[in-house]
Every structure is written in C-alpha cells, then in structure tokens.
Design a protein that fits this description.
Blueprint lengths: L1 H4 L6 H29 L3 E3 L8 E7 L2 E6 L4 H13 L3 E6 L3 H6 L6 H8 L9 E3 L1 H23 L7 H4 L6
Parallel strand pairs: 3-4
Antiparallel strand pairs: 1-5, 2-3
C-alpha cells in the first residue's frame, strides 16, 4: 500500500526520515534492554577491571561503522547515537559489552576471522568473557558460517548475499 502511494505523498522523504529515526532509536532502546538481560544473566561478563577498552570501531562497509564504547550511562549512548543520526553519519554506538559477540568470531580460524580482523581497530586485550554454553553455541554458529561462506565462494556467488556480504571481501 505504501509503495502505490509513495510518490503521491507530499514530503515523502521527510516521512521516510522520520520513520527511520524512530526505528533507529527503538533498536537502541531494545539493545539497552538486552544489555541489562545479558549482564543480569552473566552471559557476557568482565574478566577483570584492569583492562579498559575505551572504544573499538568495527568498519561494516566503506562509510559505515559500529562504535563500541565504555559509557558512563545509557543517556551518553542515546546522545551519541542522536548526534550521529542528525549528522547523517552511518555510525551506530553500542555498549562495549556487545563487542563480546564479534570478538568470539575471532576465535575460529577462517575467512570470517580474517575479514573481521581487518575491520576492527582493537588495540588491547578484550575485557569480557562469555558463559561457556553460549560460547559453544557461538562457535558452532561460526563454524556453520565458515562452511556456508566456503560454499558461496566455491560456487562463485558474488552479490545478493546480505548475510555474508560483510565477510566476503574477495572480489
């Protein structure tokens, strides 16, 4: 229905920007709820208080990044994301604890590790651990992703692969 009326709608791009803005912040708030859940259930946990990672940047594509930050409070995260959105930057700020998921991708040798390593500016040892059953599940998932990526590469798939396009740098 929206498609058929899109060009008849006045200020359609302003409307789209408003929807994207609401969606963006809805996702940020859901991430904060999930952060509370993983901390409460100790799925990801600090290994020690000695190592601090102030910021880790994960480059997704040429002009888009996820920035993992140690933040004092949730308002800082919301403020940083609001400024990034308003300046038309393709940046998403997330709490540092969420980098734990990406960091686990670096634990299994393969193309995904190689691709991801080149896109991360991690300078120090990472300060979070993972609950053992969750870590096993992630390692299994990463193993399947490696097999799937190998299949795609072996069969010369070059585009249209949203899920694996991020890791598939061979062009």
């Amino acid at each position: 229905m929206l498609r058929s009326r899109w060009f008849r709608r006045k200020k359609n791009f302003l409307y789209l920007k408003k929807i994207l803005f609401k969606t963006y912040f809805h996702i940020i708030y859901q991430l904060l709820n999930y952060k509370d859940y993983i901390e409460k259930n100790k799925i990801f946990f600090p290994k020690s208080q000695d190592v601090k990672n102030n910021q880790i940047v994960l480059r997704i594509f040429k002009n888009s990044k996820i920035v993992f930050n140690e933040l004092n409070n949730e308002d800082d995260l919301i403020k940083k994301n609001f400024l990034a959105f308003s300046k038309k930057k393709i940046l998403v700020y997330m709490p540092m604890i969420f980098f734990t998921h990406y960091n686990s991708f670096l634990s299994i040798n393969g193309k995904i590790k190689k691709s991801l390593s080149a896109k991360i500016n991690k300078k120090k040892g990472f300060n979070f651990g993972i609950k053992s059953d969750y870590k096993k599940a992630l390692q299994y998932k990463i193993g399947l992703m490696e097999k799937n990526l190998k299949f795609l590469n072996d069969n010369n798939f070059k585009n249209g692969l949203i899920r694996y396009g991020f890791y598939n740098d061979e062009k």
